[in-house]
Design goal:
Elements: E1 3-4, H1 19-26, H2 38-51, E2 68-69, H3 70-80, H4 85-97, E3 108-109, H5 121-124, H6 148-158, H7 160-184, E4 192-193, H8 196-199, H9 208-212, E5 222-223, H10 226-229, H11 238-253, H12 258-264, E6 269-270, H13 272-292, H14 297-310, E7 314-315, E8 320-321, E9 324-325, H15 350-361, H16 389-401, H17 405-422, E10 427-428, E11 435-436, H18 442-452
Parallel strand pairs: 1-5
Antiparallel strand pairs: 2-3, 4-6, 6-9, 7-8, 10-11
Helix pairs in contact: 1-17, 2-18, 3-4, 3-6, 3-18, 4-6, 4-7, 6-7, 6-13, 7-13, 13-14, 16-17, 17-18
The protein binds (2R)-2,3-dihydroxypropanoic acid.
């Protein structure tokens, strides 16, 4: 297999941070949250959301991610809801405009083709996919963590007067999405993934065993585009990419038929991100059902299934909820920020708090995506160490709801400091706060406005 090297490989970390953002951030180089002046940062966050708004949908950041991504978009809605309710609902409506007939909401919607991204719509080959029905918008063939129902509920709560009619219209689509997840991804009781990209945590150590089981033979020659935008040391490795593309070809060869993929794929991993975000979304969908006078019995059944299934992810050795390879039954041995989403999902054990406290003790900036004491830790490499604002948002809110106020405060404070000092980066080093990945990042701006900013009204 001939893998070509992208000659545009970037040397720097964040490519798109503008002078205004740098000034706003320099102004706030301090360590005390009380000293942060939120005004210029709030303004910059709103500017980023407008900058990345392509007319009805928002890209995560220009260049690196030029399309509409599923969970990024739901977070964009959360951010817009702080200053433009109509635009927030529009974001969610555009996302669900790409829903397949079987209920699946794809992880990427390819609205306007852009050859700066790989793999594009032609590689996914979903035109004749099983389950797609009459959907015409080109898309990928997998989904992403289902945060949309939870964030739609937040958008509703930000402005119930406007929100009720919009939520009512979206509700059947949200239910259909979760019905698809429960039918196509929850055979173990927890929610599993068919591709690392489905978890959103592309190169997390949770899938190392399953990825090692793939021999990426037959992968067509390709050129990575991500390393043309971002320093390669902050991205997945070439071995990861070969397997990502092998899995795309595997799904495409089966017309994205969920049953065939479930039966044949070497990669099937039950995932705490999917499980806990789904559980939380179902709880929020249940609240929406009550508000709208809908029957919530089916939703309650799904919640019961996932509450039981989540326990299959509990590894007594590491005392954490982890990815579990459904082909071998093995735990990943990986304490991650997805483990810390258990409280967001409304699930916990006392030992999970001890594990969390240990991670916080050995980390300068919380919450690392992987335990710094773990053997795979790499403080700049994507989901193998770096801090992600969206994960902090969900984890800390869940902790606060569970009475873990000190841990929640610590995570919020660290998030605010990182953004104030280092800008609206995709992710940050937990060691020294180095901004990493893409810059002017939509979901970092959204989380700032909704939660991390001292001016945030509460999310
Ligand atoms: C990427 O291209 O890096 C994405 O994470 C895939 O969703």
């Amino acid at each position: 297999m001939a893998v070509q090297t992208d000659t545009r490989a970037a040397a720097g970390a964040v490519e798109t941070m503008n002078a205004g953002a740098e000034a706003a951030c320099r102004e706030n180089e301090m360590t005390d949250l009380a000293d942060i002046n939120p005004d210029p940062l709030d303004e910059e966050a709103r500017r980023i959301l407008r900058l990345n708004d392509k007319g009805g949908y928002t890209v995560p950041t220009a260049g690196l991610y030029p399309y509409q991504w599923n969970w990024d978009s739901a977070f964009a809605a959360l951010g817009f809801a702080t200053f433009d309710t109509d635009r927030a609902w529009q974001e969610l409506e555009t996302l669900f405009g790409g829903q397949w007939d079987n209920g699946m909401v794809p992880h990427i919607l390819f609205h306007v083709m852009d050859d700066g991204y790989f793999p594009g719509a032609d590689v996914w080959g979903t035109a004749n996919a099983v389950g797609r029905g009459g959907q015409e918008l080109p898309s990928s063939g997998i989904s992403q963590p289902p945060v949309a129902a939870s964030l739609a509920w937040k958008v509703y709560k930000a402005d119930p007067g406007v929100g009720e009619a919009r939520l009512r219209a979206l509700y059947p689509k949200l239910v259909a999405f979760h019905r698809w997840i429960m039918a196509a991804r929850a055979e173990s009781g927890a929610v599993c993934i068919t591709h690392p990209w489905e978890a959103g945590r592309d190169n997390a150590p949770d899938w190392d065993e399953a990825m090692a089981g793939i021999d990426p033979v037959g992968v067509a020659s390709y050129t990575r585009r991500d390393t043309g935008h971002v320093d390669a040391k902050m991205r997945p490795t070439q071995a990861d990419y070969d397997r990502y593309i092998w899995l795309v070809q595997f799904g495409r060869d089966r017309d994205w038929d969920d049953a065939k993929i479930a039966a044949d794929s070497p990669f099937r991993v039950a995932d705490p991100t999917m499980t806990f975000t789904c559980l939380r979304s179902l709880r929020d969908l249940g609240l929406a059902a009550e508000l709208l006078g809908e029957d919530r019995a089916e939703i309650d059944g799904w919640i019961a299934t996932l509450e039981e299934g989540a326990e299959t992810l509990w590894n007594p050795e590491t005392k954490a909820y982890e990815g579990r390879n459904l082909r071998t039954g093995n735990f990943a041995g990986s304490v991650s920020n997805a483990s810390a989403l258990c409280w967001w999902g409304g699930v916990s054990r006392p030992e999970a708090v001890e594990t969390l406290d240990g991670v916080l003790e050995r980390t300068r900036y919380a919450l690392p995506s992987y335990d710094p004491a773990g053997p795979q830790y790499d403080h700049l490499r994507y989901w193998r160490g770096p801090v992600w604002a969206i994960m902090n948002y969900m984890a800390a809110q869940g902790m606060a709801e569970a009475g873990l106020d000190a841990q929640a405060d610590r995570i919020r404070t660290d998030t605010a400091r990182l953004i104030a000092d280092r800008g609206f980066a995709e992710y940050f080093s937990p060691v020294d706060g180095t901004p990493a990945g893409g810059g002017t990042f939509t979901w970092t701006a959204a989380v700032w406005l909704a939660w991390a900013s001292p001016s945030a009204k509460g999310a």
